[in-house]
Amino acid sequence: xxxHIIFAILTFCMMLATAxxxxxxxxxxxxxxxxxxxTAEPMCDPIISAAWREAQEIEGVKIEASPGCxxxxxxxxxxxxxxxxxxxxxxxxxxxxxxxxxxxxxxxDGDGDxxxxxxxxxxxxxxxxxxxxxxxxxxxxxxxxxxxxxxxFAPKGSGMSTxxxxxxxxxxxxxxxxxxxxxxxxxxxxxxxxxxxxxxxxIHLHGVDHPFSHGEHGGQDGVPQTSEIELMPGExxxxxxxxxxxxxxxxxxxxxTHTHLAMGLAGxxxxxxxxxxxxLQTLNxxxxxxxxxxxxxxxxxxxxxxLHYHSMDKELGNIIKKYNDPRLIARDMNRRYxxxxxxxxxxxxxxxxxxxxxxxSLIIVEPDQKIKLRLLNSGGEQIAVHTHGHHATITxxxxxxxxxxxxxxxxxxxxxxxxxxxxKLETVNDGKHSYxxxxxxxxxxxxKGFTTDGMAEGGSISSIVYTSYLGENGMPxxxxxxxxxxxxxxxxxxxxRLPVWQDLDEWASLGxxxxxxxxxxxxxxxxxxxxxxxxxxLLIYLIFTxxxxxxxxxxxxxSRLKSPKGSNHNG
Length: 571
What we know:
With about 575 residues, this protein is α+β, with helices and mostly antiparallel strands. The protein has a domain at about 70-290: Immunoglobulin-like (Sandwich). The chain is about 20% helix and about 25% strand. Strand 23 (about 390-395) and strand 24 form a beta hairpin. The mean pLDDT is about 90. It comes from Nitrosomonas supralitoralis. Pfam families: Cu-oxidase (PF00394), Cu-oxidase_3 (PF07732). One of its GO terms (molecular function) is oxidoreductase activity.
């Protein structure tokens, strides 16, 4: 190849490299994502009536106000307090519960409240594969567009698993988390588990005073390796106990616990002190606010909240979205899924993640109140719950009262997996119990607890909100601070398609970059590597084609180096 052609190619390569470097210095324009292009949701669930927020009395049951934007169905509370066997058909029809879901009879000790309690639970699947169409059914969103596969213990219902024939959204009774069960010391309690699922299951009464076995019903500790055979699909089993000690306890499936508990088969079970005329809210389905507290709680506290923290692995939940065949699900869950390699992707409070936690799981307070908080961590890792603006006192660990002289105040509460804490939260503005009125965050202080599938803000974030900071719609007031929460109520945000800070200034200085005017980094690297390869190829070509000349030139140069530099010959 003529040498001038080689020099031309080298010159072209250098010019191309220079042009590439200059192109990479050109910054793309900023574009804003148009809000009209987003799948926006109302902040409050539109199917929930605002009238549910009000304090009311139904069939003699007093229900406290719950001013959050998505309060629990008051009819559920009436049924939980009186039993589905002791309410009118009109109220029962508003619940969706089976007529035998909660049975209350027999005032055995004559103190004015029922002492024989029967609770019937089913096992239901959320966001699982269906043979009817390509999607999942029934759907339950923990945040906008976020539908993890899950299983739950659910109160026995009377209707469909969906809202209606036209909807694929889950019946409101079928939701995360499994409902809180509340009974009294001395009650004779039967939990009837009807296995409506395709896998075997059980119930372990974790922390609840119960016999290892029951003469009529066999083993009842829920553990297949020690006390009972797994409850197969279509079967039912009765777990019976008469608790002797009050406290905040835990119930969960103990079959293949590493997956069944993580999938959502877990809930709180609370044993209250025995008090006269103590009609309890036996099931707390939903947002955590106990709208009919026990007599003992009302004697000491102004309000009570059940706070159930749970985390889920996306990989595990996705298994039930892949198959209709239980054998394939069992294979992947029991033999292929490696919990030692798992990670937590979804972090929930009372079954929801931010921003939906603002709908249901706000702790709404007024100054100078005492609030009882019951916390459960049913996730696989320790959490660290932090209360902004407040220090709370730990009164009970795992259902056992801590020595009152040794009780301490903290603002971060470490809760191990399966552990329960009872807290006393006081809103006295003294700089210790409370810093004053506001919208104060309560959250898991692990950074990943702030995320939903890696996107922040998400996770189990909620707030301790004073009523002076609560809007008319039941959401915290933020607009007067210039804060707009609406972008969190779009599925695009959690799909990573919405720039987090695009609205911080008018020119969207941190918005989304438009299409690149120059070459992206990967293309630049590829081109430079190609140029380096071309140059190396040309060098090798020159060596082979000019080898003779190179050889002669090399020998000549070596000879000159070896020859004497001068001569001292005498004539």
